[in-house]
Amino acid sequence: MQWNSLVTQLFGPYHGMRADGDFLRGEVMFEGEPLTVIGTTNHAPIGVRLALAQARAVLDTVAQHPGRPILLLIDTQGQQLRRRDELLGINRAMAHLGASIDLARRRGHRVIGLVYDQALSGGFITSGLIADACYALPDAEIRVMRIPAMARVTKLPEEKLAALSKSNPVFAPGVQNYVAMGGVRALWRGDLQACLRDALAHTPTEDRRARDGAERGGRRLAAAVVQRVLDAA
Prior knowledge:
Layout: H1 3-11, E1 18-20, E2 23-30, E3 33-40, E4 44-46, H2 48-64, E5 70-79, H3 83-88, H4 90-106, E6 111-120, H5 121-125, E7 133-136, E8 141-143, H6 147-154, H7 158-165, H8 175-181, E9 186-187, H9 192-201, H10 209-216, H11 222-232
Parallel strand pairs: 3-5, 4-5, 5-6, 6-7, 6-8, 7-9
Antiparallel strand pairs: 1-2, 2-3
């Protein structure tokens, strides 16, 4: 889905959102409540400039509008694979983006992520997966690593990983698998305004991803391991 069509469905034709290249930003009214909307489009690669622009928008909201909810619109092919960005410290810029979102959550901002097109790799990890809750449209594409790349990293045969992906969501791309693992809280279908209204009204007060993954059978051990670590601390 195109970003303009999405925000029109969410906020009406006079939404006030704007695109600056691949960067989306706007302050909208949703049912009488102000909302900061930040995101990316065009399958944006997240480089230093784009990571810092998003972080700046989050920090501006924290500083100027305490407690205002933040909606992250996600469409990214992952981190920018370019020598210039590596030399400028893309790892630190993306970490700064993630830390800014975490700060907003700690300061009482409800942060909702929505994957409306594509979410890959570090561009997704440092945005939607750090939000209080992340949602997705049914046709969205989500993955962290393709099976051939996974095979190169793990040194396991592609055939073995392909077989594992049929029974274990951890090894498989796809939005339904991320719902099963708890990374995506739910899919938004039908009335998108109603979906956003429900997400804002029921924003989790604690990270439920591991628990959701256990309840849905996608990550059977993560929640138990986390609890054992907390109990031992």
